[in-house]
Design brief:
The chain has 145 residues and is mostly beta strands. 6% of the residues lie in helices and 49% in strands. A hairpin with a 5-residue loop joins strand 1 and strand 2. The longest helix has 8 residues, at 76-83.
Amino acid sequence: MGKLFTIYGIEASIMTSDSPSETYSVLADGIDNVAEALNEVVQQYFFIKDSGFATNHVTGMAPAYTFTGRRVIGDAAQDYIFSKKYGLDTERQTKLKIVYADEADADTTIECPCTICNIQEFSGASTDDSAISFEVRFDGKPTVS
């Protein structure tokens, strides 16, 4: 059997300051779920030679990560994100860094400028800890190393 890929092996960080240098804060405390969506643009062609079956051509994508969990006040990453809730345009722009171990147990790093979208801070029953969710959408092509 191959090695299972466990989500807690991912370390996602968001840039919370760029002055005087870039400072990243880990998206960990309170976060219990992450979902990746590549949002691919796929052109489908049905050539005569393929007897009615498609040939697919990926021509674009808009990667995004959705994070969900519970609101933890005092967590640097969450405090940064939720302080931007009513901000527009550049107020929502930052950078995302994701590090995980690949098949050979070597670290793979994905970095990209991004925009924080669909911020939800208040959710749940009156006796629940507040459920949260937000999306981090890539702005351009990520660097993978």
